[in-house]
Amino acid sequence: MSQADAESQQVSTGCRPGCGACCIAPSISSSIPGMPEGKPAGMRCVQLDEHNLCRLFGDPRRPAVCEQFSYDPALCGNHREEALSAIIELEQLT
Ligand code: SF4
Ligand code: SF4
Prior knowledge:
Number of strands: 0
Order of helices and strands: HHHH
Organism: Vreelandella rituensis
Helix content: 25-40%
Number of helices: 4
Largest sheet: none
Number of domains: 1
Protein name: YkgJ family cysteine cluster protein
Bound molecules: iron/sulfur cluster
Shape: globular
InterPro entries: Puta_zinc/iron-chelating_dom (IPR005358), UPF0153_domain (IPR052572)
Low-confidence stretches: none
Distance between the termini: 34 Å
Mean pLDDT: 88
């Protein structure tokens, strides 16, 4: 998928293109291509590209948990740093 397609798809879910906070802050226990043990909290997912877009967008190998993580104004805040801290906080509570 082209960069523009990936961006427009992420926009249609309300997600800020180029944010990627939910691909960095939370831990992901399911296996991700390139990260078979999943991802620890605070670590950048290997599938997050240099534009902070998911390389697996629309790919069946994308973990189901990533599909479920959708835009939530309370969590995503107004910019990336707000999202990062909100997600880290949530992670510490759960
Ligand atoms: S934290 Fe929110 S805005 Fe940022 S990538 Fe995730 S869903 Fe999108
Ligand atoms: S697989 Fe894609 S959506 Fe899931 S954490 Fe990695 S970059 Fe984000």
